Amino acid sequence: MVRKQGPLVHNITNYVVMNNTANALLSAGASPIMAHAPEEMEELVGIVNALVLNIGTLSTPWIKSMLMAGDCARKRGIPVILDPVGAGASTLRTNTAMRIMQTASPAVVRGNGSEIMALCGAGGGTKGVDSTMQAADASDAAAQLARQYGCVVAVTGEEDIVMNGTCSVRIKGGSPLMGRVTGMGCTATALIGAYAAVAESSFAGTVSALAVMATAGGMAAEKAAGPGSFQMHFYDALYVMTREDIEAQVELAVTGCPECGNEGAGQ
Questions:
Q1: pLDDT digits (tens, 9 = 90+) for 77-109
Q2: Yes or no: is domain 2-258 CATH 3.40.1190.20?
Q3: If you write DSSP's letter for every residue of the chain in order, what string do you get?
Q4: Is 110 known to sit in a ligand binding site?
Q5: Strand runs (DSSP E) across 35-151, as ranges?
Q6: 130 pLDDT band (50/70/90 cuts)?
Q7: How far, in Å, CA of 243 to CA of 223, rounded?
């Protein structure tokens, strides 16, 4: 899907991961824009296929741009993907994520267990921007958030869970090395933006993106000697993987509606 259509994905993301997420999008077949100046938000959102908002390194001007871009994207009807990095670690992060939820009406929220619980007021507990909770610990909070805002919620960790309020998919795969490379969660969010832009639904796009992410992690780990070479092989895997690779690397477990079983991954 992404390779054929090459969606243009606008990312207002953090300093730490800009290069990583841009390269991941390019490797998967999408085109990234990494821009944050408020003076060009309306123009840029007017030409892209999806918007990714990542609050990892917040500042007042960036918050202004995120809210402006989110509002423009909502009016255009393109998918907005929110990554509430570190929600629960500070009042600024939590409040900013909630303002984006209310202003942009995200199609997808992707976070770790602690972040998703913080958005629900459940006090998930964070260690900086890292989670102290597994994805399964946040499943109830994810379902609540999905129903409250009418969005897809993806909780990622050793096992990923995708929920839309009625259906859920558990995604098993990847590698422990993914936790040793900065920005893997942010990369997952960026890929969700690309897949949500071209899929039949945001739910299907999210499942596809996380299956692709897990597959790339598993393939990269087979060749890597450590975190440094893992990152190199991860980009290569995004570039070369096939549907057969996804089927070999990833296990999906569907709960809720039978038709979700057909919403698998594709390139």
A1: 999 999 999 999 999 999 999 999 999 999 999
A2: yes
A3: -HHHH--EEEEE--TTTHHHHHHHHHHHT-EEEE---GGGHHHHHTT-SEEEEE-TT--HHHHHHHHHHHHHHHHHT--EEEE-TTBTTBHHHHHHHHHHHHHH--SEEEE-HHHHHHHTTS---EETTEESS-GGGGHHHHHHHHHHHT-EEEE-SSEEEEE-SS-EEEEE---GGGGGSTTHHHHHHHHHHHHHHHSSSHHHHHHHHHHHHHHHHHHHHHH-SSHHHHHHHHHHHHHH--HHHHHHH-EEEEES-GGGGG-----
A4: yes
A5: 50-54, 80-83, 108-111, 126-127, 130-131
A6: very low
A7: 19
For the stretch 56-66, pLDDT in tens is 999 999 999 99
- Confirm whether residue 117 is marked as ligand binding: no
Helix axes 202-223, 227-240, angle to 10 degrees: 130
Q: Which two tokens stand for residue 38?
A: 């408020």
Core vs surface per residue 96-115: b (16+ CB within 10 A) or e:
bbeebbebbbbbbbbbbbbb
Looking at residue 267, what is its pLDDT? 59
pTM (two decimals):
0.92
Compute φ and ψ for 27, nearest 5 degrees.
Answer: -65, -35
Q: How is residue 26 written in tokens?
A: 């390019």
The answer to whether the beta carbons of residues 203 and 262 sit under 8 Å apart is: no
The response to whether 183 counts as a known ligand-binding position is yes
The least confident of 15-29, 33-47, 157-171, 245-259 is: 245-259
